[in-house]
TrEMBL record:
Pfam families: Acetyltransf_10. Residues 1-126 form the N-acetyltransferase domain. It comes from Blautia obeum. This is GNAT family N-acetyltransferase. GO terms for molecular function: acyltransferase activity, transferring groups other than amino-acyl groups.
């Protein structure tokens, strides 16, 4: 698997729509930079990062069903964190991805709402 990078919001959002990511509460809006996981010339996952002044945000985190539980999500999240610059990184995550975020050092700062979305935060070591 390779991780590539793009700033082409249109192509990433098209991939998310084609794979019905919105049904899993994945936000279908643009990001500053996208990490794109590719396996056998097929896009199998994406993770966006919006760079901010005080905090960066991981967003649009999605892995296709048949590639889940294969390390794709962990690779995307690790790569996304490498793209961040702020001392604090935040994300909204689903119940399906919350454990992955916790394994990467995020902490839950707002428990899951009725839709299963929680707010997590990661702080860069100084």
């Amino acid at each position: 698997m390779k991780i590539l990078h793009t700033t082409d919001n249109g192509k990433v959002i098209e991939f998310l729509k084609k794979n019905h990511a919105n049904k899993e509460q994945v936000e279908l809006t643009g990001a500053t930079i996208w990490s794109v996981a590719v396996e056998d010339n097929r896009v199998v996952g994406v993770s966006g990062v919006n760079l901010g002044k005080y905090a960066d945000r991981v967003k649009g985190f999605f892995v296709v069903n048949d590639m889940r539980k294969n390390g794709v999500g962990a690779a995307l999240l690790q790569d996304a964190l490498k793209q961040t610059r702020a001392p604090r990184v935040t994300a909204f995550c689903t119940r399906n991805s919350e454990n992955l975020f916790l394994k990467q050092g995020f902490i839950v700062t707002r428990e899951a709402n009725k839709y299963g979305i929680s707010f997590v935060e990661w702080r860069r070591e100084s």
